[in-house]
Amino acid sequence: MTSLSSTPSQRPEALGPQTGEHGASEHPGEHHGDHRMFGLATFLVADGMTFAGFFAAYLTFRAVNPLPSGSTYELELLLPTLNTVLLLVSSFTFHRAGSALRRNDGDGCQRWLLITAALGFSFLAGQMKEYFSLPFGLTDNLFASTFYAITGFHGLHVTLGGLMILIVWWQSRQGGRVRGGDPFPLEAAELYWHFVDGIWVVLYGILYLL
Amino acid sequence: MTLTLSPPSATAPPLQPQGWLRYLSFSTDHKVIGLQYLVCGFIFYLVGGALAGAIRTELLTPISDFLPRETYNEVLTLHGTVMIFLWIVPVVNGAFGNYLIPFYVGARDMAFPRLNAVAFWLIPPAGLLLISSYFIASAAQSGWTAYPPLSLTTPATGQIIWILSVLLLGGSSIFGGINFIATILKLRRPGLKLMQMPMYCWAMLGTSILVVLSTPVLAGTLVLLSFDIIAHTGFFNPSLGGNAVVYQHLFWFYSHPAVYIMVLPAFGLVSEILPVHARKPLFGYTTMVYSIMGIVFLGLIVWAHHMFTSGTPPWMRLFFTIATSFIAVPTGIKFFNWLATLWGGKIALNSAMLFSCGFILNFVFGGITGVALAQVPFDIHVHDTYFVVGHFHYIVYGGTVFVIFASIYHWYPKVTGRMLNEPLGRLHFLLTFVGFNLCFAPQHWMGLNGMPRRVAEYDPQFELINQVSSVGALLMAVSTLPFLVNVILSAFRGEPAGDNPWNALTPEWLTSSPPPVENWHGEAPLVHEPYGYGVEPGSLSLAATSGRDLWSAGDPERKP
Prior knowledge:
The complex is a heterodimer of chains A (210) and B (560).
Chain A: H1 16-19, H2 36-64, H3 78-102, H4 106-133, H5 142-171, H6 184-209
Chain B: H1 30-58, H2 69-105, H3 113-121, H4 123-136, H5 150-153, H6 156-186, H7 199-230, H8 244-278, H9 285-299, H10 314-342, H11 351-374, H12 376-382, H13 386-416, H14 422-448, H15 463-493
Helix pairs in contact in B: 1-2, 1-3, 1-15, 2-4, 2-6, 2-7, 2-8, 2-13, 3-6, 4-6, 6-7, 7-8, 7-9, 8-9, 8-10, 8-13, 9-10, 10-11, 11-13, 11-14, 13-14, 14-15
């Protein structure tokens, strides 16, 4: 009962959010733990619920709203399957980047991050190619609208994730924040990236395979 | 990602303004943010109240003579949106949650102070955006539910601004919810167990779970609705092959839990106020906790009871009727727990207590009509009538707003260090209670006799009863005056309150009034029994509580 710290803080230098206004605290030595990963995980639950709403809407549309004649729920599978593989591999490469950082192999970490970003942007390029080859546009029918809305919303997530990876890559250069002992940006981007990949797997199952 | 912002430097210069200017700043102090939420919310309450006044004035006569019809639709849409998204939700969650939760868990601030400030500062622009739509083009006219196809055929500009505003407010709500969950689960002072937290913590934990799970669904739905309006997709447009009922499902998946987002924190607040002024422990702490979590679970699976007339299949009607009726069980447990808390207590019938008792009375009435509305045959009879309006306002005004006022009377001495004027407070209660019941009780009768809601013109047989209702609304408007005079004058001239005028045991009272910037001058006290009232006087000392277990110096027989 002598200290207020609820968990022993491993990274006291990373406590920006907890000190805020009270930087010159009259209670030095007291630190709240670092709960940013917990906060991010809670946010991803919320983000996941947005996708859950979209999937529920799509499945209900599909169950009760017949498409106009000539339209179909069938999609070309080759490119999206390739894209799925790209994302799954990118999750693995991101994991390798994290392991490299934990081994103090900063250059290896940066290399794996670049590979991950390249895979992510290749996914986006593949998505673009698919969009341009599809036989329907945004407003053609209910399936078309839902397809573009869901894959577009996911693509937005991939874009943000790709930018995050580039930022983390910059921060993990020699003397950068990540290599300087605060792995939070890398861990946060990694959790987010795995989340986006997981959403894609569900999306692929529901939109393409079902 | 806002969550990842954090400069590694721990010695930020104190750039933030001091004094009253900090209330207009991007302050990260949870107490400042709480008051920002409260005052901002109250300003929007006055706006929403003025809009309600316009509605009740229009309804004085059966013909549409006070406002143009389109304006009437805009006014009722703005009234609902302002009151729900800018007054009730921010105040009962953001204001009291931010002020009290860090005290209750023994922390010096929220888990993410900067995210907290961002969450607050999304609200004023969102509110101004919403209200500005009335002046820019025309405000949304499709009600706070924005059901398509109505929302697709009314003027688009106002509807789009409405969507943008609600998206901002939803974002604010989600950020707040994340912060509350992290603070309650992760920032508890060592030694404080979950089952020893004050009840408001549990209420806010449950509410925040609902916020995090359901608000994103509304956000996604409104994005699809805006596609329908701007890009002419057909998600919810039957004439383009879409499905309007899917919108209703997704909308109510948020908006039914939203009722609990509005009322669960009020349950928590009233559970803090009653024991203090009845000098008795809160009855049935454990059952209270489980009923909150029961309401959270059930609240997520009852949404389609709003849609019994939307062509819902029989199995769905059956399921949602049963699930909804079940909610009466945890709610009833809480109601009887409050009564048992009061039973045999040394009740101080001050303004805070009067508003709390008013809440219990109003809420049980609104709860009973709620169970009635869950029954399909009855619901089909009164759907979209004034019965629903009456029921809803009994829950949200008679329930939550009464508790907001009770809380202001209860915590004003803590926030300002001065007492509110008691006779003015009682006058405020009397006017509010009479006015509220006069306004909304007759609406049940109107609804049962078939007066539809959301219309400016009605059958002349309802003229007298509508005038009675409008007189009640006028009394409610008048009741705001003694309150405003009271809070403004007492801030300067009120009787000094001392640190703990109510001799309360919850942690926020065990520091100075108003509290210092990081809440306690020394360490936070450990309060194992926040409701340990009724012990022999003198057996526990409320002075010099810093850092110690409140009960260790008290009665040695009491085990924490």
